[in-house]
Amino acid sequence: MDKVAVIIPAHNARRTIAQAIRSALAEPEVAEVVVVDDASGDDTAAIARAADDGSGRLQVMVLTDNVGPAQARNLAIRASAAPWIAILDSDDAFLPGRFRRLFAHQGWDLAADNIALVPDRLRHDPAALTPPQFSADPQMLSLTDFIAGNLPSGGMGRNETGLLKPVISRALLARTGLQYDKSLRLGEDFILYVRLMAQGARFLTIRSCGYVAFQRGDSLSAHHRTEDLGNYSRAARQILATETLPPEAREMLTRQEMLTRNKYHHRLFLDWKSRGGLRHAAVQALSNPARIWPILRLTARDKHMALMRRLGLAAVPHDAVKVRYLLEARADQG
C-alpha cells in the first residue's frame, strides 16, 4: 500500500481543524498527519491533539512565530517521512477513498483529483459532502495547460488550476531540491507546481472527487495583502528569468505575471490614497507611467461593480449558494 504524509498548516483554525484531521486519519493510506500550528492566537493546537484517533499517526507542531502557510508546509514536510505528500488546508477535508482512487493510476509525480467547492454553511451537510460518482478520465496536464487554467480566460471551471491539491512524490522534491517559496502567502502552490513541471514533473489529473474546499469570505486567499501580490509577481518573474519553458507556457506565465502585477499596482494606489489622499496617490502613480493604465482600468472596474451592487444588478456569487466542482466531469457509466 502506498503511504502518504498529510501536511496541515493551521492558523486560528479551532473551528475547522478537527474535521480536517479526522478526514485524513480515516484514509488507510495515510501513514502520518503533521499539523503545524502557525502561532495561532486560539486553542487550535489543543483541538488538533484532541482529534487524535490513538493510532500514533498524528504529530502537532506549534510555532511561536507566524511564518505563513508556505514555510509551515516546508517544516511539516521535513518532519515527515512517507514517500508521498498530500497538502490539506485546515478548513478543508478529504472525502473517503481519495488516495485509493489516485493510486489506482501509475506514471505520475503529482496527481490531483476533482475538488468540491462547498459553501461553508454546508460544512456538516451529508448531502453536500457526497459528490456524484464522476468518471476518473485520467489525463496528463501539460505545463501550458496548467498555467492557462489559472488565467481568467482558462477553461477549468473556476479558472484556477492553482487550487488543485496534488499528492506529491517526496522523491521528486528531493531530486529537484525545490520547496515552497517561504516569502509567498498567495500563489505558493501555483509557483511550486510550475517549477516542478518545468523540471519535468508529470502531473496527472482525474475527475473523481476526493477533496472538499469549504468556501468562506474570510479565508486568507480572499483577503491577501498588497505585498502578497507583489511577492507573487516577483516569483513568477523569477521563473521566467531562470527556467527553460515551452514557448506557449512562457507566454501564458508572462500573462499571469502581468495580471498579478497590474493588481499589485492598483492595490498600491489604494494604499497611497488611504494614507495620503487622492493627490498623494496620483503623484505616486504618475512617477511610473506603466502603472497608470492598470490603475485606471481596475479602478473603473471596481466602481462599475459597486454601482451594479447598489442597483441590485450584481449576481450573487455562485459559490455562496450551491456546491460546484473545480474540474468539469461526466457521470460514471460503470
Residue-averaged pLDDT, rounded? 89
By CATH, the architecture of the largest domain is named: Alpha-Beta Complex
Q: Spans with pLDDT under 50 lasting ≥5 residues?
A: 154-159
Count the E strands: 10
Shape: globular
Protein name: Glycosyltransferase family 2 protein
Domain Glycosyltransferase 2-like: 6-108
Compact summary:
Helices cover 40% and strands 18% of the residues. The chain is α/β, with parallel strands linked by helices.
List the keywords.
single chain; 334 residues; alpha/beta; Spore Coat Polysaccharide Biosynthesis Protein SpsA, Chain A; 2 domains; 10-stranded mixed β-sheet; 10 strands; Glycosyltransf_2; Glycosyltransferase family 2 protein; Glyco_trans_2-like
Characterization of the model:
InterPro entries: Glyco_trans_2-like, Glycosyltransf_2, Nucleotide-diphossugar_trans. Residues 6-108 form the Glycosyltransferase 2-like domain. The protein has 334 residues and is α/β, with parallel strands linked by helices. The protein folds into two domains: 4-221, Spore Coat Polysaccharide Biosynthesis Protein SpsA, Chain A (Alpha-Beta Complex); 226-310, no CATH class. The protein contains ten helices and ten strands. Strands 1, 2, 3, 4, 5, 6, 7, 8, 9 and 10 form a ten-stranded mixed sheet that branches. Strand 2 (30-38), helix 2 (44-50) and strand 3 (58-63) form a beta-alpha-beta unit. Helix 7 (188-198) packs parallel to helix 8 and helix 8 crosses helix 9.
